[in-house]
Every structure is written in C-alpha cells, then in structure tokens.
Design goal:
5-stranded antiparallel β-sheet; single chain; D-Maltodextrin-Binding Protein, domain 2; 5-stranded mixed β-sheet; Jelly Rolls; alpha+beta; 3 domains
C-alpha cells in the first residue's frame, strides 16, 4: 500500500466514530497524535525543564511544600497555596528524598513531575476529541495545544496551573463519557476530579461552575421543550441533571476540605471586590486572553471560523459536547465580571484545554468533504503553520524579554513571562558569591525578593562565606554611616540606571556593575573613592566548604572552629571540566565523649569513624565530578546546657590534602 492509499484509508476511518475504529487504525491515529505532540514536548524539555525558580515557585516550595502535610492543608497565608498540587509535590519530593538544596541545584527533579502532568494533558485532549468527535480532530487538537505558547509557558511551573489543565482535560472526558454511556465509574470520577480541581486552586470555581450551569441549563431547557419526550431523550435528560448534581457534589466535597481555611479562602486580598460588576473583565481581559491563546496563528483563524460556521449550520449531528466547550470559553469571564472581579490572566489558563479542543474540531470540520489529496495537503500545511507561528511567537517573546533587560521591566502576562528567558538568579548569585567580600554591606533594591536570597544563601554556603549586613532599600537610600565605614556596598537591582543614580546622589561613591550582562538583574558594587580596590579570591582551584548544620565560627585564642549538629553538609567544589580525585582531610574532635561519625554521599555511606574527644585528622579519598558535590556528615548529638545547642563534633580544620585528575578511559 503506498503512502497516498494509506492516508486515504486513515482519513476514511477518521469519519467513523471511535468505537467503530479497529484497534489497528486507533493505534495508528494515536501514534500520529504522539508524533504531533513531540516537537513541543522536546521544546519544553530543552528550554524549560531546568529553569531556575522564580518568586512564586520559591514561595510555594518554602511555605507550602517543604512543610508537614498538616501545614499545607491549614496554612493559607497567601493564595500561592495550591493545596492539592502542593500535597502531591510534598509526597513526591519526600518520597524521593529530595530537599530544597537539591532543587536549587537541579530544578528538573521536580519539573519532571510537571512534565508528567503535561503528558497526561496531551493524552486527555486527544482522547476526548477522538472518542467523542473524530480521530483527525483529536490529532489537530494536539497540534493546537502544543503550539499555544501560554500553555507551553506553564507546562513545568511548580504551581497548580499545570495540574489544573490536566484535571480539566480529564473532567471533560469523563463528563462526556458519562453523558454517552452512563458509566458509574465515569460518574464517580466526575465527582472526584471536580473536587480535586477546585481543591487545587479556589479560582478554578470559574471553570467548574460553568460545567454545572451548562448541564443544568440543558436539562431545564429540554424539560420545558420536551415534556413528553421519547425514552431515549428522557435518558439523556436524566444524565444531564445527574452530571449537574455530580459537578456540584464535587464542589461541595472540596468546600468541606477547605473548612480549616475557608474564611481566608473567601476573604483575602485577591478575592475582595467592590461588589459591583466589572465589565472590563469582559471588554479587556477576555479579548486580551483570547489574543494570547491565538499565539500569532492568524493563518489558522479563518479555517477555524469556517469550521465553526459549518458546525452551527449542521442540524444532523449532536454537538452537545462541543457547546460545552464553547460555554467554557465564555462563562468563566462572565462569572468573574458579575462578581466584580478582574483576576490575573493566568487564573484562566486551564481554558487552553477547551480552546485546543474547539480548534481541533473546527479545523476538522473546515476540511471535511474535500478529496484525500486536498485534505492531506491541508494537514501538512496546518502542522507547518503551527510550527512556524509557534517559532515566531517564541522569537518575538524573547526579543521583548531581551529589550526589558536594561529597562528593568518585567512582564508577567501568560505569553511574556520575565522568568522564561534571561532569568538566571543561580548563575547571577554564583558569580557574585565568588567575588564578594564578607565585610561588606548588601542592599536589595529591586527584584525577586524570594528567589534571590535563596540562591545567594546556596552559593555563599558553597563558597564558605557569610554576608553579615543585609538591608532592603526600595528607595535606594544609603546611610552616611555605611559610606563612612568604607566597606564595599553591593546593590542588587534590575534597574540599569542605578549605577548613575547612586553616583549622582552620593558623590563619595564610585560604582560599577560586577556581574555579567545578558541576564535579568545585576549587582552594582560601590566603594568609597578613598578606598583602594581589593583583589578577589582565587577560586580557580578545587576547595571544600562547610554548609548547613554547622554552627557559626568560634574562637579559642588563635584557634578557629565550628561545632556540628546531627546532620552537617560539606561541599566539594571542582572548578575543572573533568572529574578529579580529592583527598579530604577533616580535623575533628567529639563533644564530651567518643561518638560514631558517618560520611554520606547521596544515599551511599563512604566512611565511618569513631571520633574521640582529642582532636585528630581523618582522611578519605573522593572522586568529584565537575561542579559541586555535597557530602553529609552525620553524628549523634548531646545537649550542651551552656550554649543550649545540640552538639556532635567540632571541625577545627577541613581541607583538601591533595587532588589529581582522574584518568580518562
């Protein structure tokens, strides 16, 4: 069979219902849909999977993930707590033994969970359209979903939006499945998934309520128009009211789960309104949101509109499921406007699911009825148009973000997120931590006040440094005492004009940018003009530093030491491009009595010593890959009543005795 004949067979089969498809043709369409999703999944992995965390993600992880589950379900200090998503994140991270420092170094470890949700979203978008409309329409819906830049921007964000898209895709599938079959399992899943969607983000009520309104309206309309309807119609009418009850039951279940924090969920700075309808939600937010979803795909807009017209004129086919999708694209904005609300546009990001389904179904209707050759060419052109428009959207977005680097603007709409490109707080803070002086004054002027300190703490720990003086100065005020101290003053900002402003406002200061251009944010170093510049430390060779768990440095005469707790971090830093073999020398002494000390790398025990009270040096060879290697020194502790601390051993000297390059094989 040649390719033309094979395509003819597939297109002919696409006109049949999913249930009449053979397993072979169904498998073929599934493979085609997978191939259609692949370019965008590859792009997500390449561009987003290891992006540094931004403000909301760091806030979420710190306050609502790396905490007990009891805290997750009872702490609603901010709407960032997307509860069900955070419960899953908590179980995933603790199950794999991943801590916050692991994530700062390797964000992909949690973003891969978001990628799994994204994969499920593609599956349910395709499955819904294939089973209840058409396999070819399912293939086209996958293309629309993948080429919608706003949805791609949210695919691996560590928040509840990706999970919300997944849950909505599943809810739509099981709603339509119950409507067609009356399956009890599907009915149960409608209730369960609706409750989980609402429990993920409270604003998802704007998505779940329209589904309830749609089924209830259809039931009431059919009852008023068909009082003595045929048995088949009574059956579907009963299912409509049953679906309405199921959806509202799911909302009720989630409301019960919210009871511990319900007052804060209902009344917070994001939910308060004037009480009057806000028409700008309809006239401004809704058109802008739909414009973002179109994502420069103007070439596809005409065939989509043509397909919509054909659907509206077709009186021979039941498009009840399609009308549900259309209602979902309009009613959430109307409900929000009636509340007097005008939320962030990302509130409605789950609507990319019905948007993609509508696009796929409409495109299929637009090319329906043409010969196989024309249809085949149309499919290729649609795919190419989606790829080209998506590429153009990404290039255009990155151009906008690049233009914002020096201006200090940081856009945050669903297409142009400042953290999608050029946002590299880890690299920025690494560069700063390497050259900064500890006896200095650090000022936070503007920028990400959650992510930046976390990444700075991380790199300062690796470099074995401590910044002793921190200040927040949104108005860029520098005290005279800071200038008179002649200490270096570091200003973290995203405003390129800060250097000029500082020098004009404070003539005694000489300022310069000390971090590399081409990334969002910068560090400005200001020194008193009478103070000579000091050379920075040489970090071109391997080194070792004490990290978390160790208490502050103490002194006994000329002897410096640091007490350890039960779980202490040691960082080995290899600045070379190849692995090296290090000999780590630890001069330790136990608190009061001898105690066993274990040295771990990941989950592998690499050394065990019985550390005595007199100090002694312990050595071990370690092969360190390029970059940072974290070791954990664990030991039982004893309470010290004088310092009121739990103490294990003291580190008097931690150094590399020697290091050599490993032989390549």
């Amino acid at each position: 069979m040649n390719s033309h004949t094979g395509m003819s067979a597939l297109l002919a089969l696409s006109d049949k219902t999913a249930k009449s498809l053979s397993s072979r043709s169904e498998f073929a369409w599934t493979l085609i849909a997978c191939a259609a999703a692949l370019p965008w999944l590859i792009y997500v992995v390449a561009a987003y999977i290891n992006l540094d965390f931004w403000y909301d993600e760091i806030y979420t992880l710190h306050h609502f993930v790396f905490v007990p589950i009891s805290t997750i379900v009872t702490d609603y200090r901010a709407p960032n707590n997307h509860i069900f998503a955070n419960i899953l994140n908590h179980l995933y991270l603790y199950g794999l033994g991943i801590d916050d420092f692991d994530l700062l170094r390797e964000p992909w470890k949690i973003r891969i969970l978001m990628l799994f949700y994204t994969f499920l979203t593609f599956v349910y978008v395709y499955r819904t359209v294939r089973d209840f409309f058409d396999p070819l329409a399912g293939f086209l819906a996958v293309i629309i979903l993948g080429s919608t830049l706003p949805s791609v921007n949210f695919t691996v964000q560590v928040r509840g939006y990706t999970l919300s898209m997944t849950l909505l895709g599943m809810i739509l599938y099981y709603n339509l499945h119950y409507y067609r079959s009356g399956s009890r399992i599907s009915g149960f899943l409608v209730v369960a998934l609706t409750s989980l969607l609402f429990y993920t983000i409270p604003s998802n009520i704007y998505v779940t309520a329209p589904i309830f309104i749609y089924w209830l309206s259809r039931y009431l309309f059919s009852r008023s128009r068909n009082k003595y309807a045929q048995p088949d119609r009574r059956l579907t009418s009963n299912r409509e009211i049953e679906l309405a009850v199921m959806v509202v039951s799911g909302i009720a279940v989630a409301t019960v789960w919210y009871i511990p924090i319900l007052p804060k969920v209902i009344d917070n700075n994001m939910t308060r309104t004037s009480g009057m309808p806000n028409l700008s939600t309809i006239t401004e937010l809704m058109p802008a949101f739909l414009g973002h979803l179109i994502s420069k795909r103007w070439l596809l807009l005409l065939p989509v509109l043509y397909g919509l017209i054909k659907i509206f004129r077709d009186k021979n086919q039941d498009y009840s499921g399609f009308y549900l999708l259309l209602i979902l694209m309009v009613l959430p904005f109307l409900l929000s406007a009636l509340r007097g609300d005008k939320p962030f546009d990302r509130t409605f990001i789950p609507l990319v699911i019905p948007f993609s389904m509508i696009g796929g179904i409409s495109l299929k209707e637009a090319i329906k009825g043409f010969d196989v050759r024309f249809t085949s060419i149309s499919l290729v052109l649609i795919f190419l148009a989606a790829i080209i428009s998506f590429t153009f959207s990404v290039v255009y977005r990155d151009r906008i973000l690049l233009s914002n680097l020096e201006s200090g603007r940081h856009l945050q709409d669903i297409t142009n997120n400042y953290y999608q490109n050029y946002y590299k707080p880890s690299a920025l803070m690494k560069e700063f931590a390497e050259i900064c002086q500890e006896e200095s004054i650090f000022i936070i002027h503007k920028w990400d006040k959650m992510a930046m300190p976390r990444y700075l703490d991380y790199w300062l720990e690796i470099y074995g440094k401590t910044l002793k003086e921190w200040h927040k100065s949104p108005n860029l005020e520098i005290k005279k005492s800071w200038i008179r101290s002649k200490k270096p003053i570091y200003v973290f900002t995203n405003d390129a004009n800060v250097q000029r402003l500082l020098e004009s406002r404070y003539p005694d200061l000489s300022c310069k940018r000390i971090t590399s251009p081409g990334q969002l944010g910068m560090v400005i170093e200001c020194n008193h003009r009478d103070r000579p510049e000091e050379s920075t430390l040489d970090r071109s060779r391997p080194w070792v530093a004490l990290g978390r768990g160790w208490y502050a440095t103490e002194y006994a005469g000329s002897l410096a030491y640091r007490w350890g707790s039960a779980n202490n971090t040691l960082w080995l830093v290899n600045p070379y491009d190849t692995p090296i073999h290090m000999t780590l020398a630890l001069t330790l002494a136990s608190y009061e009595t001898a105690r066993p000390v274990e040295l771990w790398h990941d989950r592998r025990l690499i050394a065990r010593w019985d550390v005595q009270r007199p100090m002694r040096t312990y050595r071990i060879g370690v092969t360190a890959p390029p970059g940072q290697t974290r070791l954990r020194l664990r030991a039982p502790t004893t309470y010290d009543p004088q310092s009121q601390r739990e103490l294990s051993v003291t580190a008097l000297k931690v150094q590399l005795a020697d290091y050599t390059a490993t032989e390549s094989k």
